[in-house]
Design brief:
Helix content is about 50%, strand content about 5%. Strand 8 and strand 9 form a beta hairpin. It has a domain of about 210 residues. About 5% of the residues have low confidence. Strands 6-4-7-9-8 form a five-stranded mixed beta sheet, with helices on one face. Strands 1-5 form a two-stranded antiparallel sheet. Strands 2-3 form a two-stranded antiparallel sheet. The protein contains 20 helices and nine strands. It has about 525 residues and is of the alpha/beta class. Helix 2 runs antiparallel to helix 7 and helix 6 crosses helix 7.
Length: about 525
């Protein structure tokens, strides 16, 4: 790996070409192009009344319980909440002051705006700190602002990744400054508080930067200012053991799963466009590596992250898709490592690719937000304190991610409802559920639909302990929960009244579980 070549080698004299398109953009031009694209990345959030992130409604419901449980008898009855400091609190901390200024739903949307914008600006900050311009690497890096992690609604991770990008840019700018190490002790702690994966990303980036300068033991100890959170990680490991859960897990079929997350590294709207973009970026990265046009200041970190995606487990202490996050981030950092200079034409083509993909994401968010509004109209007439068992169809083989999986979270925000889609592992998550049994939480509200698979919900356990059964899906169920009486049916959902809840007893397996 080496530094970037001079631009002159791309200029071929004696040929008739439009001069402006084949000229190198000035730093000012490239800066404004990058800034405009980073701001335009907010378009999906702007057009959608309801952010179409899979986990977002569940996070919103948790914030509501966290902020209002002490003043609500219903929330006290249904939920427990124990605040604890951990490496997964970015949005949870930010929502506290915002919710004092506006409604919770408005505050949640502000956090989505902030997360998306900061990730885009963070990409530009890294590129500018290294090269004092925005080049092809920065524009391709912007493609990963809307990574599957963002679409899944990993807000804490998104805030942490943005913080890590800005922190790394500062690390580069302060190279050689004697007070850099003590300054980064609190910075590392802040990044970790947002999310542990972003903190790990910052550590790898710092290591790669220092390894490029000095390939010795010094590079391994260079990230020492970021090590304060290790004490907290030890405490979380002990808590995980006490909970009886697994500290880590690779899943059932490791090879198949790893292949799947790599194929889905740019999963968004159109399968073949996402595949084509991923393959194209892979070819550019591999080709640039072969031609020694990867900037080692980030190239080593990108390689390390992509290798870690193969080594790391899927789950660590309750966190999911740990390895997948390394893929998204590793590809972003790999793009930022591209050190060849490009003419305006190439930068405009990269910008066109970004805008094309952004347009599809924006359209999806607009149409799915309208669907969310229609679905929520079904439960708006229900009373405060209602108990709802939701069941959301997720069709196996469909490429776009289903953003409605946790839609019942809005019932908690608006109705102080008891619902069954929370992230609520004991001693792992701060929120706990007082009723409904061990299957009354994520992921047991999800119905994995496949043609030919029976969908008999007669013994669907969560429906035994609620007032209403809410099914969201476009395929009819083979059988509803026992004694359910449908009161409202549309072509994409149904709402059914259940008999009075019964005391807990033996629970059936979740739908789709084999």
């Amino acid at each position: 790996m080496s530094a970037e070549p001079p631009f002159e080698q791309f200029n071929v004299r004696g040929r008739s070409r439009p001069g402006w398109l084949w000229g190198e953009p000035t730093p000012r031009e490239s800066f404004w192009l990058g800034l405009i694209l980073a701001v335009l990345a907010l378009l999906p959030v702007f057009v959608a009344q309801y952010p179409q992130m899979v986990d977002y409604p569940a996070h919103l419901a948790r914030y509501h319980v966290m902020l209002n449980r002490d003043s609500s008898a219903l929330l006290k009855e249904y939920y427990g909440f124990q605040w604890r400091w951990s490496g997964n609190l970015g949005a949870d901390l930010l929502i506290i002051p915002l919710a004092k200024l506006m409604s919770l739903e408005a505050a949640g949307k502000v956090i989505v705006y902030v997360t998306v914008l900061l990730n885009g600006l963070g990409v530009l900050a890294v590129e500018w700190s290294l090269r004092r311009r925005i080049g092809i690497g920065g524009l391709l890096g912007l493609l990963f602002v809307w990574s599957p992690a963002m679409l899944l609604g990993f807000l804490n991770f998104g805030l942490s990744l943005a913080a890590a990008l800005f922190a790394f840019a500062l690390w580069v700018r302060l190279d050689g400054w004697k007070w850099r190490a003590p300054l980064f002790m609190p910075i590392g702690l802040v990044v970790w508080l947002c999310h542990v994966s972003g903190w790990g990303t910052l550590g790898v980036m710092v290591f790669g930067y220092e390894w490029h300068k000095d390939k010795s033991w010094r590079a391994f100890v260079a990230p020492w200012p970021l090590t304060l959170p290790f004490v907290a990680l030890i405490g979380l490991s002990i808590a995980g053991e006490k909970s009886g859960g697994e500290l880590y897990s690779y899943g059932k079929v490791v090879g198949t799963y790893k292949w799947a997350i790599w194929r889905q590294a740019m999963r968004d709207t159109w399968r073949w466009l996402d595949y084509g973009t991923l393959i194209g970026i892979g070819v550019v990265l591999v080709g640039s590596f072969g031609l020694k046009r990867l900037d080692g200041r980030l190239g080593w970190a990108a390689i390390a992250m992509l290798v870690l995606s193969l080594v790391l487990p899927r789950h660590i202490i309750g966190g999911d898709y740990v390895d997948a996050r390394m893929i998204y981030t590793g590809l972003m950092v790999g793009c930022l490592a591209l050190s060849w200079r490009a003419p305006r034409l190439v930068l405009l083509l990269a910008a066109a690719l970004f805008l094309g993909r952004l347009g599809l994401t924006t359209h999806t968010w607009y149409t799915e937000s309208q669907r969310t509004e229609r679905l929520l109209a079904m439960i708006d007439p229900l009373p405060q304190g209602v108990k709802i068992a939701s069941l959301v169809e997720t069709e196996i083989g469909v490429w776009p991610i289903n953003p409605q999986e946790h839609i019942a979270g809005y019932a908690v925000v608006r109705k102080d409802a008891l619902v069954n889609m929370h992230f609520a592992l004991p001693l792992i998550h701060m929120l706990t559920i007082n009723e409904g049994g061990k299957f009354f939480r994520d992921p047991y509200h999800r119905l994995l639909w496949k043609k030919g698979r029976k969908t008999d919900m007669t013994t669907y356990a969560p429906a035994r302990y609620v007032d209403w059964f809410w099914y969201i899906g476009r395929h009819e169920l083979d059988a509803l929960p026992s004694k359910a009486k449908v009161t409202l049916r549309t072509d994409e959902a149904l709402l059914a009244r259940m008999p009075p809840p019964r005391p807990e007893r033996g629970l059936a397996k979740p739908p789709g579980d084999s």
